[in-house]
Write a structure and sequence with these properties.
Helix content is 75%, strand content 0%.
Amino acid sequence: TGCALGFFLQIYLLDVAQLDPFYASIILFVGRAWDAITDPMVGFFISKTSWTRFGRLMPWIIFSTPFAVISYFLIWFVPDISSGQVMWYLVFYCIFQTLVTCFHVPYSALTMFISREQSERDSATAYRMTVEVLGTVLGTAIQGQIVGKVVTPCIESPLFIGKTNSSVAMEELNMTHDTGSLTDTRNAYMIAAGVIGGLYILCAAILSVGVREKRESSELQSDEPVSFFQGLKLVMNHGAYIKLIAGFLFTSLAFMLLEGNFALFCTYTLGFRNEFQNILLAIMLSATLTIPLWQWFLTRFGKKTAVYVGISSAIPFLIMVAVLDSNLIVTYIVAVAAGISVAAAFLLPWSMLPDVIDDFKLQHPDSHGHEAIFFSFYVFFTKFTSGVSLGISTLSLDFAGYQTRGCSQPSEVNFTLKMLVSAVPVGLILLGLLLFKLYPIDEEKRRKNKKALQDLR
């Protein structure tokens, strides 16, 4: 669901629901910002949740799933109302983000509840991220291939619009390259939403049956509870955590900005209107296949080295796709290479957060039960900033003169899209890698922490 929304929601709101770019930017920003806010809220309630026979986290996953699927489907439905469409998408987008947070925060924190061993948690994280990226491949493939079978009607000569003040002129310009109708496109989005919703339920069922939490895995010898806000203060004062999320904040933001604008970039700037879903699929397949490679690399050379090598490897390809002339073969090569870096960006934050939590436990051995705070606030910071960036990027397209349902876009829009998928992400990646120089937990520190934790237990 996250991949489908990330890659397709912006172009859906603009060209299928036919919302003004200004209102689309509001929906994208408020939805992401609300999503960010709900992460620490859910983290707070999880920290207050008592253990049940199903565990502490699993009930959140089980009970949120059916309502999340319903709200997800309604996001991809175009209501037949003359006014109120903006509120429709805003409300159901926020509802879905709340419910999927009730799934994702406990799901992410499960790593700390299934084992005490660093190697086992790293292995579990690698398996989880491999399957998670495989899920994004399925989401991209299902959404892209179903929607891609129907060509969205577009308006010829969009630059001429705006020079006319007649609704009749607008109707005359509503010419398409084929006989596909807007209704067919909307139906395709709903079919894709139904299929992805079914997979969501299936995956939640497999998770609830196949995974069991171990209460003792998240606790040291002390059982003295610490309040959520005391724990939050301790977490936010933990230097290693702040430095880690600062670095990943900018690198994650770079890839989220690329994700949010890539469909528009392929459709209009590169001119691959009927190929962008296959290009997205190439990126995600490459990412899925290379996650085991990055798991081996971080085990062999260390996690900080994997950060520098893996994430920086995207930079030359991001520059290449913006500088070179539009070429489909080159674009596919760049997509595969970019997927390798995306795999590192997916895997490494979730592999390094448990190390920070172990470091925290050594400094605060009497404070426990705050794993959800670490995970939820990391997600909070990345989602909130991505909401700001995506809202601003959509607004910048409006200022550049974006034409809803246009078969082509003005040169200013194409230039803006190049900046949003190339120059800006490259700058954010470089800034994030500089901040990683401050991150204190290297391989030697990890080994010392592991031994100290074994002594405490």
